[in-house]
Every structure is written in structure tokens, then in C-alpha cells.
Amino acid sequence: MAEVPGKLELFLGFAKIGALGFGGVGPWARHVIVEERKWLTEREYAEVLGLGQILPGPNVGNASVMIGRGFHGLAGALLATAGLYIGPLCLLVVMSILYDAYGDLPRVAPFMEGVAAAAAGMVIGMALKMAFNLKASAQLVAVGLLAIAAVAWLRLPMLLVVAILAPLGIWISLRQARAAALAKARP
Amino acid sequence: MILLGQILVAFGTLSLVAIGGANAVLPEMHRLVVEVHHWMDDATFTQLFAMAQAAPGPNILAASVMGWHIAGPAGMMAATLGMLVPSACLAWIMAGLTIRLRGNTWMKPAQFGLVPIAVGLIAASGLIMAQAAGTSWLSFLIIGASTVFVWRTKHSPLWVLAGGGLLGLVLL
Fold first, then answer.
1. Which site among B29, B46, B112, B129 would you substitute to test the A interface, given the most A Cβ atoms closer than 10 Å to its Cβ?
2. Domain coverage including residue A181
3. Residue A187: pLDDT band by 50, 70, 90 thresholds?
4. I need a surface site. Which of A139, B25, B93, B114 has the fewest CB within 10 A?
């Protein structure tokens, strides 16, 4: 791990991720944790996110618990999680009060349409960036492509896709690590 | 009190099956909130979900908005806790396991085997979002420009979000 954040820094970093996370927090989490503050390397972050993905719940929410615990134990997990949710929750309270009062929200449809399009591109761009930075083997790339096809094209439930592909990915990765270790042991 | 307990249990169960985040549990959330408990009608459910999507933060916070609608501030708290605590506990246990197994030689490669799935699922949700957002040539242009910007540069993604919103405001 490159830089260990203090407790306040951890809270503020995750607060930024939550508050700016329009259209999902994934790209912001990676931007703040890997690029801006350098708390984790691309690979370390991807590994935490991979675990977060196979657990139920939002993957960045799970990542906040795991990253927070790694840096500062229980306090870290609580601070990171609280930071992630505090900004959006406050805003949602205001929006709920407005919704109760007027039964509708101000018309911001065209602006939000543009934001939604940009957010979609942001998520695809982040996936491309991670894919090229991680330098995985061809077989693991194939597993990733299978995941894309199964969810985006065939529209299979993520639960099913993870249940099938997780053992496959782990098996391939372990086999390659063993082959690499054997090759190194041989003179 | 009984209502709050019901909210806590309903969203707590939802939390444990929410692999893939909010969009993955949307059908089950609808079934529980509209069909099983009759807490709101179809139209309200759709509006509240859209409202949560428009706000920043993890999309799972749709649960909080629904909790507020069902039982006010206490309902929001019950729904949010129900949605967060069970999955956060699992993440805590998983983090403990990885810390315990850190020295193990097979731990890192095993964990790396999950990475392509995580990245693939992110790409897939981006494509699904693009399908929903791509309603005109301008929105496709915004999607393409934003993809390239985030992929090829290290600048803050805030620029594309603001730019996309402004373009939408002026041209859509």
C-alpha cells in the first residue's frame, strides 16, 4: 500500500466519493482511491472490488468496509462507510421533503439526461482503464468478456453469472500461478 | 413500531441477495414493497427509484427514500440500516478472512481470479446504462466522449458529468 490515510482523511475521501457519485460511485471511488490519493494500487483496488462484487450489497459499500478495516480496524470501517453515505443521505432527506410537499420534483429532465449519458460513458471508460492497467492473461480476459456478454447481452441475473464465473476465474488464476511457480523453480 | 420492524426485515433480506447492487435487486424490491406489503403503488415506486438515481451515492439508497415514504424519518433509518448492516457484516467477515490468509501463497492468485469478473460486470452495467441513456445522436456523442475522456485521461470525471448535463440542458 502506497500511502496510509489518517482517520479523518479516510472519512473525507469516502465523503467525496459519495457526494460526487452521480450515476453510481464506482468511477469516483477508483479516481479518489487509486489516482488522486494513491491509497491503493490499481491491482490492490481491483482485488478488493472483486471481493466486494461477489458479496451482496453495493460493491463500493463493501469495499469501504474492507479498505477501512485494512487501514484502521473497526473505526476505519465505520468512518469509511459513514463517509460514503452521509452526503447522499442528507440530499435524499431534502428531496424526500420536497417530494412530500409538492408530489413531484422540479423539472430537471434534460440536464439529468445529459448527466445519465455522461455517467454511462464514465462507467465504460473506467472498465476500459482498469482492463488495460491490470495486464491479465488472455484466459482471464476471456472470463471478463464472458461476464460482459452474460449480463449486458443475455441479461442473465448477476447472482447466476457470479456463481458460475467466480470458481472458473479462481481456478484459472490459481493454475497460472502454479505454472509460474514451477517455471521459476526449474533452472 | 411493528411497521418499522417490517421495514427493517424486508430491506434486511433484500440486502443479503443484492449481488450486483441496486439494479440487480430492483425486481425483488418491487415485489416486496408493492406486491407483498402494499406500501405504495407502481407509479410511486418508479418515481422514488428514479429520484434516488438522480441523487449521488450508491444506488442502493433507493431503499432509504422508500423508507421515508412509508414511515417518515424513522422509516428512512430502518430501511437504510436494513439495507446496509447485513451486507456490511459479510464484508467485515470477508476482510477478516483476507487479513488472516494474507501470508498464504494461493490467496493473491485466487483473489485475482475474481478481478476479471468485477471489471466485466462494471463494463456490463455501463453498457446497460448506455442503452437506457442513448435516446438521441447527441446522447450517444456524450457517451462516447465521456468514455474516451475517463479512459484516456487522469482528470476528474466531474468535467464530463457537468459537460454532459450542460449539453443536455442546451440541446436536448
1. B112
2. 136-187
3. low
4. B93
